[in-house]
Amino acid sequence: MFHTESDVVFVKGLTVEAVIGVYEWERAITQPLLIDIALETDISKAAVSDEVNDALNYKAVCDDVSEWCQAIKAKLLEHLAGQIADKLLAKYNCHKITLSVAKPTAIQQADAVGVQITRYAKGSIAESNVNQDS
After folding, report:
1. What is the pLDDT of residues 89-131, one digit of tens each?
2. CA 50, 55, 60, 66: dihedral to nearest 10 degrees?
3. Distance CA 132, CA 130 (A)
4. Which run of H or of E encompasses 102?
5. Fewer CB within 10 Å, N side or C side of the chain?
6. Is the dihedral of CA 120, 121, 124, 129 positive or negative?
7. DSSP string for 116-127
8. Are 64 and 87 contacting, i.e. CB atoms less than 8 angstroms apart?
9. How far is residue 71 CA from its own chain's centroid?
10. d(CA 62, CA 100)
């Protein structure tokens, strides 16, 4: 499913109703968004303890992402995805996030349109490698 050398906590197909879009009519309604999130983190402590307090709580992630989507009211999916990734990295113990946000009702001829981004926690080895390549 994921091509990574790290542990991953994921959310697939989170549906959120939110204001999104650039057109005036889009600003007056909510539209469904489909969100997939892969949070790369170390799950070894939770794997041993079997305690939710040692895990990255995907229920809390879903609740936060839903709330942020509704509060941000972005015009662009790019902006929304960037904001969500930044907030997840700031709040949760993960070193890399891959996030996709899709609008399934935006284009009648397509199942969905959207964006996918990958972001790294500040100071992570991967972030350093990305910045050196820039």
Report:
1. 999 999 999 999 999 999 999 999 999 999 999 886 555 555 5
2. -120
3. 5
4. strand 96-103
5. C
6. positive
7. EEEEE-TT-HHH
8. yes
9. 15
10. 14
User: Which phi and psi (to 5°) does residue 28 adopt?
Assistant: -100, -5
Number of H-type helices and E-type strands within the chain: 5, 4
> What pTM did the predictor assign?
0.88
Return d(Cα 3, Cα 118) in angstroms, integer: 13
What's the token pair of residue 51? 């305690």
The question of whether 45 is a catalytic residue gets the answer: no
Instruction: Pick the closest to residue 40 from 119, 134, 129, 102 (CA basis).
Output: 119
- Give the Å distances, CA to CA, from 134 to 52, 86, 95, 128, 131: 38, 20, 19, 10, 5
pLDDT above 90 coverage of the chain, percent: 86
